[in-house]
Design brief:
35% of the residues lie in helices and 23% in strands. By secondary structure, the chain is an alpha/beta fold. It folds into two domains: 2-79 and 170-211, Nucleotidyltransferase, domain 5; 80-165, 2-Layer Sandwich (Nucleotidyltransferase, domain 5), CATH 3.30.420. A hairpin with a 5-residue loop joins strand 5 (96-102) and strand 6 (108-116). The longest helix has 18 residues, at 54-71.
Length: 216
């Protein structure tokens, strides 16, 4: 959870696990109080729109929609893969980033982004694939970021990446930074139009898949 104006950020970074639905609204109250702002002082509200955990994405979307409706503010859905790329760039300065998340079910979510004078450009849109199906047909040298490279260590070598940061996460501040850029470009949407980006369209497992330990 983060609130800020692009130069100053108040961040509450907690891995809440299964308690995020109970703790999310108190975190909102906490960071707003720390910033000295009310909900009505905000220009917009952003959330990590996915891909990622179906439950987490739906909770984040629903809370953002509710807050935006109450405050009469636009919403900015931000790709979690783009946020990983941005967080890695802020930390290490690499401008060509392949963002990769473990998608469970022996698959990964993957996208590629390049940073330039005008900000980020999407060079490969988000997809969900088996690691062995991925080919990176992009010019130049690229680095990897995200948990997908921890789940599948051989993937970086297959893609010819020059470095990997498997610990990179879609932080709240990275989501906020990207949302501010889009708000300034007039890309905020009405609360009812703010939708998650699932990429994978399966929302349930079979009994056999659950018994085998598969997770969406």
């Amino acid at each position: 959870m983060a609130v800020g104006d692009g130069t100053r950020w108040i961040v509450r970074d907690v891995q809440a696990g299964q308690t995020h639905s109970e703790r999310l609204l108190p975190f909102v109250t906490e960071v707003l109080a720390a910033a000295g702002w009310s909900l009505g002082d905000l220009d917009g509200i952003a959330f990590g729109a996915g891909p990622g955990s179906f439950t987490g994405i739906r909770i984040g979307c629903g809370v953002a929609q509710g807050l935006a409706l109450g405050a009469g503010r636009p919403v900015v859905p931000v790709s979690t893969l783009a946020a990983i790329a941005h967080a890695h760039w802020c930390d290490r300065g690499d401008t060509r980033v392949v963002a990769c998340l473990d998608a469970r079910m022996r698959e990964v979510y993957i996208a590629a982004y390049e940073h330039g004078a005008a900000g980020w450009s999407e060079r490969r849109g988000p997809a969900v694939l088996l690691p062995e199906e991925i080919a990176l047909d992009l010019p130049g040298s690229w680095v990897g970021a995200g948990s997908g490279f921890a789940a599948y260590p051989a993937l970086a070598g297959r893609l010819g990446l020059v470095a990997v940061d498997a610990s990179a996460r879609p932080t709240a501040q990275a989501i906020g930074d990207l949302a501010l850029m889009r708000l300034r470009a007039g890309e905020g949407v009405a609360a009812g139009d703010a939708l998650p980006v699932y990429v994978r369209h399966r929302v349930a497992l079979t009994s056999a898949e659950r018994a085998a330990g598969a997770r969406l």
